[in-house]
Every structure is written in C-alpha cells, then in structure tokens.
Amino acid sequence: MDKKLLIKKAFEAREKAYVPYSGYHVGACVLTGRGKTYTGCNIESASYTPTICAERTAIAKAVSEGERDIKAIAITGDSEWTYPCGVCRQVIREFGKDILVIIAKSQEEYREYTLDELLPNSFGPEDLD
Ligand SMILES: [Zn+2]
Q: What is the domain extent for residue 19?
C-alpha cells in the first residue's frame, strides 16, 4: 500500500473543496482492494444540511463505481490534525472495522488508526444479520 500516494491525492483533493461558508478545506482519498483510488473534498451548501464531508464524497465515488472493498482512507484538513466526524466514521464502518484511516498533517507526517480504534464497539452490517 502506497500511503504516501494516498496522502498526496488527499492533499490534491483538499484544494478542490467547495467551502464558501466555513472556509474549512478537507480532502480524502480511498484505496480499494483492486488498488484503485477515489478522492473526495467537502462540499458545502447555502442551506447547510446538504453539506457533505470529503470522506463521504470519496466513499460515494468508490461505491458508485462498484467498489465495496475499501482498504484505507487518507484524510487531511485545515486543522493540524483533521479527524473524521462521527457520521463519516459510521459510513467508513459500513465497509469494515479494519479499514486503515490515515490522518495526514503533511506529506511526511501522519498518524494511522484502524476504523475500530476511532469507532469502538460500533454498530455495523453484521448486527442486522
Ligand atoms: Zn464527516
């Protein structure tokens, strides 16, 4: 897994963020089991509620292209360390507890977690079996 490439693509996606209200830019890049990458940025709306985070944008792009095997997601934002919000943690969780979540401060400095570490004791698809 080329973590540096995922981080680079997350940084590139962050530049595309549409954030006229908050001014807070976030970029994400998902890696799938087939080795494909899908990027996302946050997209705000004047009516606020429809705003979508970068992580969910990237996952929506991956899933809408037929990908469900998500291995990793790299995230970067305007804070020193930008962690996924609760809604995004739950959406990532939908595709696995072991997904690697990379929180990138810079191209060189990043932290790694499993989704399970960021959302312990979570509710997921197997709870509905
Ligand atoms: Zn979010």
A: 3-128
Q: What is the pLDDT of residues 48-60, one digit of tens each?
A: 999 999 999 999 9
Q: Per the structure, how many domains does the chain have?
A: 1
Q: Give me the CATH number covering residue 31.
A: 3.40.140.10
- Written as six digits, the tokens of 104 are 């990138």
Angstrom distance (rounded) from CA 73 to CA 39: 9
Residue 117 among the catalytic residues = no
The burial class, CB within 10 Å (0-12 / 13-18 / 19+), for 27 is buried
Rounded distance, CA 104 to CA 83, Å?
9
| Ligand 1: centre distance to CA 11 (Å) | 16
Q: What mean pLDDT comes out for the span 97-114?
A: 98
CA of 24 to the centre of ligand 1 (A): 12
**Exactly one of 12, 55, 94, 112 is catalytic; which is it?**
55
